[in-house]
Specification:
By secondary structure, the chain is an alpha/beta fold. It has two domains: about 70-100 and about 200-380, Rossmann fold, CATH 3.40.50; about 105-195, Rossmann fold, CATH 3.40.50.1100. Helix content is about 35%, strand content about 20%. The chain is built from twelve helices and 13 strands. The strands form three sheets. A six-stranded mixed sheet has the order 4-5-13-10-11-12, sandwiched between helices. The radius of gyration is 19 Å and the shape is globular. About 55% of the residues are buried. It binds pyridoxal-5'-phosphate (PLP) and zinc ion. Zinc ion binds near residues 5, 7, 21, 24 and 29.
């Protein structure tokens, strides 16, 4: 296994304390993990459409040392014929994970890595989901968990944090401010870092959702896969997962991956549309989709490069369409999503209206978080 800097291409080997390229820094120098693919013996019949994510251990950077691995990944892919204007609609319901979000796929990697490397404390900054995920995934481990969140965290996510007994630091300011503060304190104290993008191994856990989609579709590659975007790690992970299965000869093409952002929290989209060289920007953002309200995306370079390389794109949707999408998704599929989880449906409707996605397509919507985390978003008690 090796790691490559997304900006300068410098190579690294896995070592304790290595997170990002020393030459490029934590924002520009995020690392991409690779494996000896040529030596890997994998075949389609090795994987099950219901097994949890550690079935892909060969393609993960660390062995499992956690007691909760059986509750992470292996989430259902629901199929709906002629739904929301497309002939074949698939919904990957990642709200079914241990803490009810996609983030568990990353948290278990971080917990396993921290245990293996002998840490006693793990920390993370988060809009809410990564934090509640880490707190619950690490609860049964020997690790202490320290969390940094903005005061805007929805009550459901805060309740998960409290229940799991994590140390919670509520930071005055935005998620982006919480991120900066956590890095300062966490590294000063020598804790293990589970911050998006800074830790290159998190993406490895997240990519298993792409593997699962392909296995669950019996290796029939969908035309489009839509997912919401904040920091840009989740979308990068899906692209990497699809590309790795192609590289391993398990499929012969990759889907077009499209990221969806909220209209007033679309920093990554702006950077992508301005084109290369991708220059990070920092701005004030707001949206009902708290999980993707990110004004200083930490995986911006990787997300833009992966999107450009794979032929993907980004679209933005207004908050009221995200709200409508929550209700429509629940009404038609029975899946109750938090705003960021429903945003891909709002993106799909826009692309169908614009004729950029055709009715005959096979489309996967990735629902990244359960609606019970943030019922206030559609007028429930918050
Ligand atoms: C529910 C949900 N969806 C999507 C995302 C977006 O992931 P990323 O910030 O890696 O782009 C997040 C991140 O917090 C999330 O919690
Ligand atoms: Zn570099």
């Amino acid at each position: 296994m090796g790691l490559t800097c997304i900006s300068c291409g410098r190579r690294y080997t896995k070592s304790k304390g290595l997170y990002y390229c020393e030459a490029c820094g934590s924002l520009l120098g995020t690392l991409v993990v690779d494996y000896e693919y040529a030596k890997m013996e994998v075949s389609r019949d090795m994987f099950s459409s219901t097994a949890p994510m550690y079935q892909f251990e060969k393609l993960l950077p660390v062995q499992n040392h956690s007691k909760v691995a059986s509750a992470i990944g292996g989430t259902p892919l629901l199929f709906f014929e002629d739904c929301f204007g497309v002939d074949r609609l698939y919904v990957k319901n990642d709200g079914m994970n241990l803490s009810a979000s996609f983030k568990d796929r990353a948290s278990i990697i971080a917990v396993n890595m921290a245990i293996e490397e002998g840490y006693d404390t793990i920390f993370c900054a988060s809009t809410g989901n990564a934090a509640s995920s880490l707190a619950l995934v690490s609860a049964s481990s020997p690790l202490q968990t320290v969390i940094f969140v903005p005061s805007t965290i929805p009550s459901g996510k805060m309740a998960q944090l409290r229940a799991a007994g994590a140390e919670v630091n509520v930071v005055a300011g935005s998620y982006d401010d919480a991120f900066d503060q956590s890095l300062e304190e966490g590294f000063k104290n020598g804790w293990y870092c589970r911050n998006s993008a800074v830790n290159p191994y998190l993406l490895e856990g997240k990519k298993t959702a792409a593997y699962e989609i392909l296995v669950q579709m019996n290796y029939q590659v969908p035309d489009y896969c839509l997912v919401s975007v904040g920091d840009g790690t989740v979308i990068s992970s899906l692209i990497k997962g699809f590309e790795e299965f192609k590289r391993l000869g398990l499929v012969d093409r990759v889907p077009c991956v499209i990221g969806v952002q909220a209209e007033h929290a679309s920093t990554l989209t702006k950077v992508f549309k301005r084109g290369e060289p991708y220059i990070p920007i920092r701005e004030d953002v707001h949206s009902i989709a708290d999980s993707i309200s990110v004004g200083y995306p930490r995986d911006v370079i990787k997300a833009c490069k992966f999107l450009a390389r794979s032929g993907g794109d980004l679209v933005t949707v207004p908050d009221h369409e995200i709200k409508d999408a929550i209700v429509e998704l629940a009404t038609r599929t029975g899946i109750f999503a938090e705003p960021a989880g429903a945003a891909p449906l709002a993106g799909l409707k826009q692309l169908l209206d614009q004729g950029r996605i055709q009715k005959e397509s096979a489309v996967v919507l990735v629902v990244t978080g359960n609606g019970l985390k943030d019922p206030g978003a559609i007028g429930g008690n918050s």
